[in-house]
């Protein structure tokens, strides 16, 4: 499952500054299309980040309602807030860079949430925490891959700025799992 998180203040400002104007060719010529500037890796990151955000928002909403443990409900609320904020920045970046985003979370994430949603009480909490921990670990790997192989400074800044929040979520999830 791919999950992504939001950024903290300076990261958002830096990313938005990078995205602030129309792209200009390296020789100072007329603006170039965003698609021409964005590598396959950058497009992949934006699409997966968006789908992950959609999955996290849905999972957080379910946890707020079905969580038996206060920590699960609380983390669910944080995920909704953070992933909503991140997704706004991802959508803005994708729009400025002319990258089409999927309309829904990945099929495997939707199916996982449906399976977990059928559970109740402590069984729900355990399954939800396990899924969220795996997703946050995958999100960290996705961000690392973008930082290593991405080419767009704006997209790389999104990945860089998201990492501390992903780690914070992962730490909270691991504490709740114990």
UniProtKB/TrEMBL annotation:
Q: Name one Pfam family in it.
A: DUF4142
Q: Does the keyword Signal apply?
A: yes
Instruction: Tell me the first and last residues of the signal peptide.
Output: 1-26
Give the keywords, sorted: Signal
Question: Where does the record place the DUF4142 domain?
Answer: 41-172
Q: Does the keyword Transport apply?
A: no
Q: Which domain of life is it from?
A: Bacteria
Q: What is this protein called?
A: Membrane protein
């Amino acid at each position: 499952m791919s999950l992504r998180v939001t950024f903290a203040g300076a990261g958002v400002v830096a990313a938005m500054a990078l995205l602030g104007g129309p792209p200009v060719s390296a020789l100072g010529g007329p603006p170039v299309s965003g698609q021409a500037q964005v590598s396959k890796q950058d497009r992949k990151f934006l699409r997966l980040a968006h789908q992950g955000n959609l999955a996290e928002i849905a999972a957080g909403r379910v946890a707020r309602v079905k969580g038996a443990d206060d920590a699960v409900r609380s983390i669910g609320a944080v995920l909704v807030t953070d992933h909503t904020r991140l997704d706004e920045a991802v959508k803005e970046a994708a729009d400025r860079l002319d990258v089409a985003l999927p309309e829904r979370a990945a099929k495997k994430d939707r199916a996982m949430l449906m399976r977990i949603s059928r559970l109740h009480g402590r069984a729900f909490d355990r399954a939800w925490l396990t899924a969220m921990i795996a997703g946050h670990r995958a999100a960290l790997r996705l961000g690392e891959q973008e930082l290593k192989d991405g080419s767009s400074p704006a997209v790389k800044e999104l990945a860089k700025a998201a990492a501390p929040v992903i780690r914070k979520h992962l730490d909270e999830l691991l504490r709740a799992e114990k």
